[in-house]
Design brief:
This protein has helices spanning 21-27, 32-38, 73-78, 103-111, 128-132, 186-212, and strands at 10-12, 50-51, 58-67, 86-91, 116-123, 136-141, 152-154, 158-160, 163-165, 170-173, 178-181. By secondary structure, it is of the alpha/beta class. It has one domain (11-212): Glucose Oxidase, domain 1 (3-Layer(bba) Sandwich), CATH 3.50.30. α5 links the parallel β5 (116-123) and β6. The radius of gyration is 18 Å and the shape is globular. The structure holds oxaloacetate ion (OAA) and magnesium ion. The site of magnesium ion has 4 residues, from α4.
Length: 213
């Protein structure tokens, strides 16, 4: 950790990242709305969790983090477990009145190759993320700073924006919002998304053609 604090109150559980990065990259080129349609419109996070940068898409492997409201010790600890291509997904208890993430942690994420951050709670230093090139999503923004006492967890399944997120799941975000996908089904989901995308291109071309007549 870049902070000198005791993190013994944080439970850390290892997990496997099995998603093929090429498949993650390929599916992230499609709209979240379309991916969600293919999944029978399930698996999307609560609409209240909004993009705080214009950087698109967000895509990677879920690194799940649980914190107490207003406390971010587990987020600091999670950076030691992060691998390039991870997305920090944080259950911060939906609390929007105290930020648990900011520009310093953002710089730490970029240094570790973290691909994005999603917080069911608040962040601050919101102007810094664009320049860092780090896509961030959150339920809220607040200048009030966090405590660093714990407890919390890194690597255990969490709830975020009403969706269960397990370590190694795939998460994709665009301007509409976020969706979480099981890594094992990624190739199959991508094939279905590509079929649906081709169908919609044809449909749209027909509509535009029709409008001209
Ligand atoms: O103080 C914190 O841990 C959150 C924050 O503002 C930062 O990371 O810059
Ligand atoms: Mg800060």
């Amino acid at each position: 950790m870049f902070l000198e604090v005791d993190a013994s109150s944080i439970t850390v559980v290892p997990f496997e990242r099995t998603a093929d990065p090429a498949l993650v990259e390929a599916i992230s080129q499609h709209p979240v709305a379309l991916i969600g349609d293919v999944l029978q419109r399930m698996g999307m996070m609560a609409a209240a969790i909004r993009p705080r940068t214009a950087i698109r898409p967000l895509a990677g492997s879920v690194l799940p983090v649980l914190v107490r409201e207003g406390d971010n010790l587990a987020i600091h600890r999670s950076l030691d477990e992060a691998r390039a291509g991870d997305v920090l997904v944080v259950n911060a208890q939906g609390d929007v009145n105290r930020a648990v993430f900011g520009g310093l942690l953002g710089a730490g994420c970029v240094a570790r190759g973290i691909a994005g951050v999603v917080i069911d709670g608040a962040l601050r230093d919101v102007e810094e993320f664009e320049e860092l090139g780090l896509p961030v999503y959150s339920r809220g923004v607040s200048p009030a700073g966090p405590y660093k006492h714990g407890p919390g967890s890194v690597g255990l399944p969490i709830a975020c924006g009403n969706v269960v997120c397990t370590g190694g799941d795939v998460i994709v975000g665009d301007g509409d919002g976020l969706i979480v996908l099981p890594a094992a089904d990624l190739a199959d989901i991508l094939a279905r998304v590509e079929r649906q995308a081709a169908y919609e291109v044809d449909l749209k071309a027909g509509l535009v053609g029709g409008a001209r007549r």
